[in-house]
Amino acid sequence: MIAKLKQFLQSHAQESSPEDKQKNLNLAAATLLQEVVYADENLAAAEAALLPEMLINTLGISSEEAIILIDEAKQSRKDSTSLFEFTAEINAQFSINDKQKLLLSMWQLAYSDGELSQYEDQIIRRTAELLHLKHSELIQMRNIAMETR
């Protein structure tokens, strides 16, 4: 675990190009969305179908980029030790509106299979806290997701 932490700190200490920063940001967001999808350890067909759409809408990427990003995020999710490494990247580059949009996408994915598991709820709440969003913003995004499903 210490080795992974050192690797994480070294990779973020190096200067990176704007393209690398954007790629890391997209990967962080995609990994957080996948955390919701796999939280209940059951990938529902509705969640699998909605994930690329959420990436396209949230990150403004193409469908081809979304498919590639999903594969990269699967590996990133396996290699991760906590949500912090992803939320730190998002906090550094996302506006409040972007964070709210990401949180809304997380809620929409969680509700897409017709039920919200306690694990999905827990991950979304922890993510909102790590993104420094208010509880009222968390509830507002959840209510929007519930209304639009």
What features would you describe in this structure?
The chain is 79% helix and 0% strand. It has helices at residues 2-13, 18-37, 45-59, 63-79, 84-93, 96-111, 118-130, 135-148. The N and C termini lie far apart (39 Å). The model has no long low-confidence stretch (mean pLDDT 87). The chain is mainly alpha-helical and 149 residues long. Helix 2 (18-37) crosses helix 5 (84-93).
Count, helices: 8
Q: From the alpha-carbon coordinates, what is the Rg to the nearest angstrom?
A: 15 Å
**Strand content range:** under 5%
Q: What is the total tally of β strands?
A: 0
Terminal Cα span: 39 Å
Largest sheet: none
Unreliable spans are none
Please estimate the helix content: over 70%
The backbone outline, from C-alpha atoms, is: globular
